[in-house]
Amino acid sequence: MSNQTKDKILETATRLFYFQGFHGTGLNQIISESGSPKGSLYHYFPEGKEQLAEEAIVLSKRRIGAVIQHYMNEFVDVGAALNAHILAMADLFDVENGLEEHSYTMMPFGLLAAESAFMNERLRKVCGDTYKYWESIYYTKLIANGFSDEAAVTLSKAVSAMIEGAVTLSLSQRSNEPLLNISKVIPALLAQYK
Amino acid sequence: MSNQTKDKILETATRLFYFQGFHGTGLNQIISESGSPKGSLYHYFPEGKEQLAEEAIVLSKRRIGAVIQHYMNEFVDVGAALNAHILAMADLFDVENGLEEHSYTMMPFGLLAAESAFMNERLRKVCGDTYKYWESIYYTKLIANGFSDEAAVTLSKAVSAMIEGAVTLSLSQRSNEPLLNISKVIPALLAQYK
């Protein structure tokens, strides 16, 4: 058994958790879709589904964090950077062709966050910390753009809430309009605090 | 078997779906917590869990819609109305005492929306329509406050996304700070469009 096996199990679990949620995904499906023997799963993830979910959340924290950081680095202006980030998410909602499997790195973190909110304190905490981490990336960029500490705190949290909500609405309405809409609204909001 | 039995089953199912999600809630738990015989459940909800979920979503659509409308009626100014609505939600997040069971009428709709997004097209549609209905209440109030049609469309969708995201973040971080934060941000946003 190699690290490749571990990675494959974790990738499969992460994808399934995003599309089906924690409760909607069974260990047997993870085993069969990853093509790994049951023994490997318990070897690498002795705590089973909860451990897999925690590692999936941490993986998403890093990956989505890297995507956010990429857009923050690409533009000097925080408005332009947020715009590019949100439009990239909107592009993934291709209604005609359905969501591509590769796009799950941008999927709604909200499903795992909402599922764990009352049901699993350990996962709830990891999800809560993940949102704070993403907010810290927006915060740092706002500070670099000359916003005051108070404005950067307020705006980074508001941007985080807007994006999270817009992703959920876009998925639920099968339309990227909610995401496109907040990409229009955020520059107006930033202007108010500059 | 009376309508009271039907209502009791639906209330129990709605509460459980909010706290545990669709996949995390089994019919047996609904039956046992509602104190109703299995036969009643299938008598009133012949399609089982899917039908219960659909009726729970429609119930929430009306109830939460009535709460939103209540705040829109209470204040002439749309900013004041939204503020009161969001602060009332923030009040429900009493970290010390935990969420009260009666407060589930304000719970995150996002869990059912996210769960159904890929897994159940029928429920996905009902959730998507629910968000549009709530947005229409904000829209009407914005128009009554003299906002242009274009501004009212943009703002009603943005408010909807912000509230949805802030509720998810508040639950996930066990803090009403994300909700309190958007209550500060929305007046600034409205000012930009007036």
TrEMBL record, chains A, B:
<feature type="DNA-binding region" description="H-T-H motif">
    <location>
        <begin position="26"/>
        <end position="45"/>
    </location>
</feature>
<keyword id="KW-0238">DNA-binding</keyword>
<feature type="domain" description="HTH tetR-type">
    <location>
        <begin position="3"/>
        <end position="63"/>
    </location>
</feature>
<keyword id="KW-0804">Transcription</keyword>
<dbReference type="InterPro" id="IPR001647">
    <property type="entry name" value="HTH_TetR"/>
</dbReference>
<dbReference type="InterPro" id="IPR054156">
    <property type="entry name" value="YxaF_TetR_C"/>
</dbReference>
<protein>
    <submittedName>
        <fullName>Putative HTH-type transcriptional regulator yxaF</fullName>
    </submittedName>
</protein>
<dbReference type="InterPro" id="IPR009057">
    <property type="entry name" value="Homeodomain-like_sf"/>
</dbReference>
<dbReference type="Pfam" id="PF00440">
    <property type="entry name" value="TetR_N"/>
</dbReference>
<keyword id="KW-0805">Transcription regulation</keyword>
<dbReference type="Pfam" id="PF21993">
    <property type="entry name" value="TetR_C_13_2"/>
</dbReference>
<dbReference type="GO" id="GO:0003677">
    <property type="term" value="F:DNA binding"/>
</dbReference>
<dbReference type="InterPro" id="IPR036271">
    <property type="entry name" value="Tet_transcr_reg_TetR-rel_C_sf"/>
</dbReference>
